[in-house]
Write a structure and sequence with these properties.
The protein is α+β, with helices and mostly antiparallel strands. The chain has 2 domains: about 5-55, no CATH class; about 70-140, no CATH class. The protein is about 45% helix and about 15% strand. The protein has helices spanning about 10-20, 30-40, 50-60, 95-100, 115, 120-140, and strands spanning about 5, 40, 45-50, 75-80, 100-105. The longest helix has 24 residues, at about 120-140. This is Alpha/beta hydrolase fold protein. InterPro entries: AB_hydrolase_fold.
Length: about 140
C-alpha cells in the first residue's frame, strides 16, 4: 500500500512523517501528538496503531462523495476546506450551500489544515458553535 508501518524509534518515525507531503506542514505539537497516539511500541519497534487498509477505506468514503440528502439534515452544517486541499475541492461547497443551514468555508492550508493550524481551526469551530447556539436560542425564545 506504500505506507510504512514500523519504525526503529520515534525520531525515525518523526523524520519519516515530517518528510511526507501530507504531514510536512503539521504544527510541531500536532505531529508529536500524532506519533504518541498513532504509534505503539511492539517488540522493540514502533508500529501504527491502525490498519492502513482501514484508513484507505475511510478516505474512499469521505462524505463529499456521498452526502446525506439535504432535506434530511435538521442541524446546521459547515463544510470547511483547506484552501490548498486536493481532496475537497471548491465545487464540493455547492453541496453544503444547498442545504437549508449549510455553509462552505475555506481555511489556509491543505487537506490536513486542522493539524497544520490547530489554533485557528479551534477558533473557527468555537465561532461556528457560538453562532449556531445563539441562532438556536433565538428560535426557542421566538
Amino acid at each position: 500500500m506504500g505506507r510504512r508501518e514500523a519504525f526503529d524509534d520515534l525520531p525515525s518515525a518523526r523524520a519519516y512523517f515530517a518528510g511526507k507531503t501530507l504531514f510536512s506542514r503539521f504544527d510541531p505539537d500536532c505531529l508529536t501528538a500524532y506519533l504518541q497516539h498513532g504509534l505503539r511500541e511492539d517488540g522493540g519497534q514502533w508500529r501504527l496503531r491502525f490498519d492502513p487498509a482501514t484508513e484507505i477505506s475511510i478516505y474512499r468514503s469521505i462524505p463529499h462523495t456521498s452526502p446525506v440528502p439535504s432535506r434530511q439534515l435538521k442541524v446546521p452544517l459547515a463544510m470547511v476546506r483547506g484552501k490548498h486541499s486536493r481532496v475537497i475541492m471548491p465545487h464540493h461547497g455547492y453541496l453544503a450551500r444547498r442545504m437549508r443551514e449549510g455553509e462552505y468555508l475555506s481555511m489556509p492550508g491543505g487537506h490536513m489544515f486542522p493539524l497544520e493550524r490547530p489554533d485557528e481551526t479551534a477558533l473557527l469551530l468555537k465561532t461556528l458553535l457560538a453562532r449556531w447556539d445563539a441562532r438556536s436560542a433565538s428560535r426557542v425564545t421566538a
